[in-house]
Please model this.
Amino acid sequence: MTVLESSYVEHAPHLSLAVARAMQSTLAPPIKYKDASLEAYGRTIPREAVGGDLVDLVTSDGDVIAYVSDVSGHGVSAGVLMGMVKTAVRYGLMFGQGLPQLLEGINRVLPSVKEPNMYATFAGMRFDGASEMEYIVAGHLPLLHYRQTQKDIVRLSMEQFPVGLFPEADYLSGHVTCGPGDVFAMVTDGLVETADAWEEQFGLQRLESVLRDCAMRPLARIYDAALEAVSRHGKQLDDRSLMLVRVLG
Model:
């Protein structure tokens, strides 16, 4: 083995880690957004250097689309598929696709470019400045809707297949009325399924309590409160992601 080859072998693990971290920071950076009608904040914390969770926000023709996706598996293979999902979402939105049409297109394409057992869950919201928000859920946890006027939380769920499993699956979206002060939360299972020493999961109810107690705080503070609560509850064994969106007016 030459000196050059020996040096490469010695430093290869560090190079791989650096590439993985660069990949993660490029594909899933923190989200911070604000305009006259809404604000958003979201982050994903991978279990490894690169993960399969994705938080993203896209503006298209005056609309704001925020979404969360969770790719099955861990590590680089999940991160690669996560990158494919992000590219496909942004490409579809560039051509003005609606949320159901968007997922149907991604669902037809993914099976031919991934391992057979892999798939991606998806939860997304579209805001167009009106008093209604369009949402879609595909194999994902419910969206949480904190209603400022009622001071309560509603779970928005739909029974639909995740993308990438069945190419012929159809998708539907729903609509919900929202107003100033309302906060929406999208979360991945790596956060709510965090278990304590007695194998009790953190669950949606605890996240709802944090959201209800902190609803008037800045979104970054709500995020921090949620992550602090789940970190106290149990050890991280999966990617953790949380996206928050507040209606301003």
Summary: The chain has six helices and eleven strands. The longest strand covers residues 63-71. The two ends are 66 Å apart (CA to CA).
